[in-house]
Amino acid sequence: MANVSSVRLTIPKAASGGIIRSELVSSVLGNKKKLVYIHAGAGYGKTTLLSQIAVSCENTVWLTLDGENDVFTFIDTLSEAVKQSFSEYEFAVSEYLPFEGKENFITMLANAFIISIEKHAKDIMLIIEDLHTTQEPQIRSIVTSIIKYPPDNIRVCLSSREAPWQELIPLRIRGSILELTQKELAFTREETAQILGFNDDGVFNITEGWPIAIGSFRVLMENGVSLADIPVQGSEALYSYLLFECISRLSAEMVHFLRISAGFEELDAQMLDSVLRIKNSRMLLESLVSRNIFTIKTSSGQYRYHALFREYLLETGDKPGRLLMQHEAARYYLDIKQYPRPQYMRYFQMIRKCCGRLYCPVIRNILETAASANCAYGFLPLEIHPPCQTGRF
């Protein structure tokens, strides 16, 4: 029998003051697909939603993963979770130890577990949360096998901070997965107002519906913090959360990339490759998107960071380095003649702001060329100051 805390096998109790995500719960319970995959970044209410789904089902098996790295431990723990709901359930995973070296071992073990579940006539909702905490290939393989061939009486609901892994892509393409993402889990404007007790566009816009941020702001108000001071005091708590939940778990290369690229509102992979002297910006950005690290892929194919996440990166990053990168970005867009595009024009204006009003022929040439193109394309001209005898613009 697995030595596992009962907390990991028990449906979490609802926190006081929370809201019922009735539309999301209904979208899961009313859908006939056998697999539900919920993925979003830290603090997006995955556990809260799962617990609301769980209590809405008659028979729920709940398992919270905690970095399991052995397939026998995983199945033993999963069996304990089933036994928590069905006391008569038995599955002896140790019987399959002699077959571990066989080529079809994972399929054999998965089939045996499926058959053991099929013996129960009752419909079961199997919920496994925090799937991202385990990277063990055999565990992912056996979960995939259970998902591909689920018993008629079982639905599987998974949650993770990461998008579905490679083995689940065929199911995704066939439309066999009900997928709920960060976009669906973010609070709506109405839900935000319900949490706060009033409607405030400023709070909604800066949080972008991030549930934990909105909840933190509400706690601050309950403790007497004024609405005007909430962004400052709320950010301090969120920064600590982001550091613990996100930044501390990333590689040094990724952290450096995040902090230096945060200087750009829009993240253009080709531009970043050029100014950072690397060749893998798109791969890094796609990795951040798939892992739900507060990175959004826009409709234009570019990327951006969540507003509060970017604010955190800007506060903790290298400001001189960012200014240099913005200067390099201006040169890059000038070289490839994309400076007329309005979203790039701010980088040219930044050059003058970064350098004060010091006269520099090279910078002045960039600005004059960009300004000329700017007018030609019908945009507002940039402010160019003529050089004076003191050597200033």
Q: What can you see in these coordinates?
A:
- This protein is α/β, with parallel strands linked by helices.
- The protein folds into 4 domains: 6-185, Rossmann fold (3-Layer(aba) Sandwich), CATH 3.40.50.300; 197-245, no CATH class; 258-317, no CATH class; 320-393, no CATH class.
- It contains 18 helices and 7 strands.
- It has a 5-stranded parallel beta sheet. A two-stranded antiparallel sheet has the order 6-7.
- Helix 13 (269-276) packs across helix 16, helix 16 (319-335) crosses helix 17 (342-354) and helix 17 packs antiparallel against helix 18 (361-376).
- The longest helix has 17 residues, at 319-335.
- Mean pLDDT is 83; it is low at 375-393.
List the helices and strands and how they pair.
Layout: H1 22-29, E1 35-39, H2 46-55, E2 60-64, H3 71-85, H4 105-118, E3 124-129, H5 137-148, E4 154-160, H6 169-173, E5 177-180, H7 182-185, H8 189-196, H9 201-207, H10 211-222, H11 230-245, H12 252-261, H13 269-276, H14 281-290, E6 295-297, E7 303-305, H15 307-316, H16 319-335, H17 342-354, H18 361-376
Parallel strand pairs: 1-4, 1-5, 2-3, 3-4
Antiparallel strand pairs: 6-7
Strand content: 5-15%
What's the mean pLDDT score? 83
Query: What would the CATH topology of the largest domain be?
Result: Rossmann fold
Helix content: 40-55%
Tally the helices: what do you get?
18
Tally of individual domains: 4
Strand and helix order: HEHEHHEHEHEHHHHHHHHEEHHHH
Total DSSP E strands? 7
Low confidence ranges: 375-393
CATH architecture of the largest domain: 3-Layer(aba) Sandwich
Straight-line N-to-C gap: 77 Å
Label the structural class: alpha/beta
